[in-house]
Amino acid sequence: LIVGEYLVTDVDDPLQVVIGKLLKAKNKTMATAESCTGGYIAHLITSVPGASQYFKGSVVSYSNEVKESILGVKRATLDGEGAVSEHTVAEMLQGLLEKVDANYGIAVSGIMGPDGGTAEKPVGLVWLAAGSKANVQTQKINLRFNRDRNIEVTALMALNLLRKFIVNS
Q: 91 and which of 4, 64, 73, 129 could share a cystine (Cβ 3.0–4.6 Å)?
């Protein structure tokens, strides 16, 4: 199959439906820790009827204080690497999974724009994490300048990272 690596589903289902089917088939649960998407991933998941069977909840950790106090991100990580970093999303995910006791999770942090970027961390820079307590996978993406589009693309990329993680676990 030439497109096997890129094929999400062989029916016309959105990613949030595919994720739900995978979780139900494995009798597993998930949760999200969202910064830059502001709860949009949780919105997509909960737009699917029956999501309460596998979705535990979400922490919208828009501020560093919430990342630290609720999700357990280390102050040293935030001070040293910033909120938009690989280590931050990994710590967000681990803290989330400990707090809500879900099998799988997603964490995202990025700069959606149109401002807020720097030369080192430009608008559109996003770090994603997906995984379980035992294994976290991260991915860095670079998007453009449209805030709404960046939020949508980030959500879909995060859902797909989780999908691939579930399929391969």
A: 73
* Backbone CA torsion sign across 10, 16, 19, 25: negative
Query: Tens digits of per-residue pLDDT, 25-54?
Result: 999 999 999 999 999 999 999 999 999 999
Q: pLDDT tens across 98-124, in order? A: 999 999 999 999 999 999 999 999 999
Burial 151-169 (b: 16+ CB within 10 A, else e): bebbbbbbbbbbbebbeee
Helix H or strand E encompassing 142: strand 136-142
Q: Is 35 helix (H, G, I), strand (E, B) or coil?
A: coil
Count of CB atoms within 10 A of residue 113's CB?
21
Helices 15-26 and 147-167, axial angle in degrees (round to 10): 30
State whether residue 88 is helix, strand or coil.
helix
- Tracing tokens 């294994």 back to the chain, one arrives at 135
